[in-house]
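Query form — protein Oxidoreductaseshort chain dehydrogenase reductase family

QUESTION: What is the three-dimensional structure of this chain?
INPUT:
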Amino acid sequence: MTKNKYDFSKKTVLITGAGSGIGRAITKAYLDNGANVVIVGRRESALLETVSGYEKERYLIIAKDISIPENSVKIVESAVKHFGKIDVVVNNAAVLVNGEIQDMLLSDWEKIRSINIDAFVYLAQAVYPELLKSKGNLVATSSVSGSFGDWGQSAYNATKHAINGFVRSIALDWGTDGIRVNAVAPAFTKTEMTLGIGNTEKELQPFINRIALGRPGRPEDVAPAVLFLSSGDATYITGTILTVDGGTSASSGQPHIG
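ANSWER: The structure tokens for Oxidoreductaseshort chain dehydrogenase reductase family are given below.
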């Protein structure tokens, strides 16, 4: 999963949205680099698939809805009770709802806001005392959509703009406490969340035309960046939104000609 090895032995990492896609890849990367992990998601069966083949004593599965405020407190309490501490939090859970604002159902906005924004706030509040003790750090999964606009994604983009704002501001607030806060920002990445997008060569071509490296992202492209930001190699990096986008955001938006 990672070309370089990071020493996460004796570290406890809490990861949300760990049942598929980027969250699953991140979980495996931490396990491969020696960490104990607490993995959170709605479906226990999916979480079990994520940790299949790893020693049971190295992971704790928590199947809970993170959009419910009190669940974040319960998750943190369970993690500390099981492993004794929390060193790293990876706030990865997110949902995507496409559509223009005038057509969006209020229930869709409630869903995307509660998972992408509210759950981030609840977990940050709940885990702060533990990160203060461990002098740990938090890494969020944002998106290049948090820095720019996209057609038909106003709600999703707004939530990712919010995450970027939280990351930068919390990094300032928590910096003197010895806690680092950063984010990774992928572009179009083939995961369960993007099923139905770019499934044929013709549908995929507009995305490829914007990607300097000529292919969509994979979850395995994102995981190493998360490990780096939470590792001892990044001890002077905080408040950063690290793009992991194959060069997508290097473009001015002009079409690829020639």
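ADDITIONAL NOTE: The first helix runs from residue 21 to 32.
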